[in-house]
Amino acid sequence: MYQLLAIFIDVVCVGVIFVPVFWFVCGRALWWESKRRMCLLLCFGLYLAAVFSVTGMPDIRSLVFDPAFHFLPFVDVVNSPFSYTCNSILNMILFVPLGVMTPILWEKFRDLRRIALLGFGVSFFIEASQIFTFRLTDIDDLLMNTAGAVLGFLLLRAFCKKDGKRLLPEENQNEKRKKEFGIMFGMVFALMFLVTPFLSGMIWEMIL
Fold first, then answer.
1. Tens-digit pLDDT profile for residues 134-152
2. Number of domains in the chain
3. Residue 117, helix vs strand vs coil
4. What stretches of 93-207 adopt beta strand conformation (E)?
5. Tens-place pLDDT, residues 159-185
6. Which of these, 41, 43, 135, 146, could form a disulfide with 120 (CB 3.0-4.6 Å)?
7. Half-sphere exposure of 75 (CA within 13 A, CB side)
8. For residues 87 and 113, is the Cβ–Cβ distance under 8 A?
9. Domain interval for residue 79
10. Exposed, middle or buried by CB within 10 Å (0-12, 13-18, 19+), for 3?
11. By the 8 A CB rule, do 120 and 146 touch?
């Protein structure tokens, strides 16, 4: 319960800044183009904030260099199979929305190989950043996150085929739209790193 509350507070702290800033940077033009797509973009930004919160990304207040690596995959399944299985499933579920939302929003991610690379890249960024926390950089997390993104994409593709729908077409993608993912990822990470620790700290002081 405490962890869910912490994630919620982090997402709210990001949202109160991210939503108006993204609206100012990209949203005004996108709103008239597609209200549904704009809302989905904002939801995707908040999802990224939740992912960063769950995975314990470093922030400016708690930055510390403490590398700890686990390079051998699937070893823990022998030592604690139940805990390992639960953790692996949660890591997969965490990245399923990435595999669902990115193909809907961006045409360039409507390919299984690219989704796998995206899931791997995002997870690798998170795992690499954890050398600046007290968390473990774990290859199992990297593999399960990637598998979750792939699973999300396969579920979306299966759903679209079942209903006779195509993935939402995005012809005429301009240069601004092609840069959206990078802009959103950078904005959310910057807010989580620089701003959220101070805002969330104030909220926790009021709660406690």
1. 888 899 999 999 999 999 9
2. 1
3. helix
4. 137-138
5. 887 655 555 555 555 555 767 898 889
6. 146
7. 6
8. no
9. 2-207
10. exposed
11. yes
